[in-house]
Amino acid sequence: MNNILQFLFYILIFPGFAFCVVAGLLIAGIDRKLVARMQKRIGPPILQPTYDFLKLLGKETIIPRHAARKVYLAAPVVGLLSLVTVSLFIPIFNFSIFDKPVADLIVIIYLLTIPGVALIIGGSASGSPYAGVGISREMVAILSYELPLVIVLLTIGRKVGMALDGNITFSLKAIVDYQAQYGPMIAQWSMIPAAIALLLVIPCKVGSLPFDIAEAEIEICEGPLVEYSGPPLGIFKLNHAIKMFIMTSLFVTLFLSGAGTNFVALNVLIQFALAVVVTFISISVLKAITARLRVEQTFKFYWTYPTALALLSLVLVWLGL
């Protein structure tokens, strides 16, 4: 019985649903405030994304006449469930739900793809021509950032695996234990190109400027989300905020982790603070100074610079450097 209650606590409270919602909405609010300050504006309050989410929960859900009702309503929920599941796999310094190393990096790669696929399926179920344009763009975005992301994770797995048994490891717990012994991964010069590549991948994975090609509010009226309203739209917006926290927190675990302290609450605060720093570097700065890229520019950019940086780190690690 105790194990069941503990498992439910992990899923519903921490590090699962409730923690992801609070942290994601706070990260989204801080990001908006930072962008406003860099553009010499006051900006909305940090809790504005929370207010917007709660407001959408109270709005009416309008379903298009030609929409596939069940798929249309299920898509945002599927995306949310996948993100909450990802949060269960990400260690917070020495705190991890899983006591033994598991191949969670492979699971995370698949789970992080589901929100994008859910957006595509939900948009296609709405029957809107604007959604059709956004769907094609989301597919291009996925094809753009997945290659450098996989190479970065492969590089880290190889680096840690060489210190363990000479193979490749896909365990986040093993990666954290490695950093607790040898120091943060970003302090090793052969891993710096991979860290830069992941910083460049994060904004496209999240879907923020300058890589918000799928939702482009001014150009195609939010693309796949054009027909969404009420709670389903609120859940999609929540998914965006949670994904922002998940990706920045994953970067912290992969490159800035270690033994941490003996207090879980303090480790959580440190993880969140580092995630805010990563958000500022990876998302806010680009959003404040860069115009949105076109579809072909996004594809060319990711298959050139982040991929080249990730491959450079992989080659250096494979050579034992």
UniProtKB/TrEMBL annotation:
<feature type="transmembrane region" description="Helical">
    <location>
        <begin position="139"/>
        <end position="157"/>
    </location>
</feature>
<feature type="transmembrane region" description="Helical">
    <location>
        <begin position="105"/>
        <end position="127"/>
    </location>
</feature>
<dbReference type="InterPro" id="IPR018086">
    <property type="entry name" value="NADH_UbQ_OxRdtase_su1_CS"/>
</dbReference>
<feature type="transmembrane region" description="Helical">
    <location>
        <begin position="301"/>
        <end position="320"/>
    </location>
</feature>
<dbReference type="Pfam" id="PF00146">
    <property type="entry name" value="NADHdh"/>
</dbReference>
<dbReference type="InterPro" id="IPR052561">
    <property type="entry name" value="ComplexI_Subunit1"/>
</dbReference>
<dbReference type="InterPro" id="IPR001694">
    <property type="entry name" value="NADH_UbQ_OxRdtase_su1/FPO"/>
</dbReference>
<keyword id="KW-1133">Transmembrane helix</keyword>
<feature type="transmembrane region" description="Helical">
    <location>
        <begin position="269"/>
        <end position="289"/>
    </location>
</feature>
<keyword id="KW-0812">Transmembrane</keyword>
<protein>
    <recommendedName>
        <fullName>Hydrogenase</fullName>
    </recommendedName>
</protein>
<keyword id="KW-0472">Membrane</keyword>
<feature type="transmembrane region" description="Helical">
    <location>
        <begin position="6"/>
        <end position="30"/>
    </location>
</feature>
<dbReference type="GO" id="GO:0005886">
    <property type="term" value="C:plasma membrane"/>
</dbReference>
<feature type="transmembrane region" description="Helical">
    <location>
        <begin position="186"/>
        <end position="204"/>
    </location>
</feature>
<feature type="transmembrane region" description="Helical">
    <location>
        <begin position="71"/>
        <end position="93"/>
    </location>
</feature>
<feature type="transmembrane region" description="Helical">
    <location>
        <begin position="244"/>
        <end position="263"/>
    </location>
</feature>
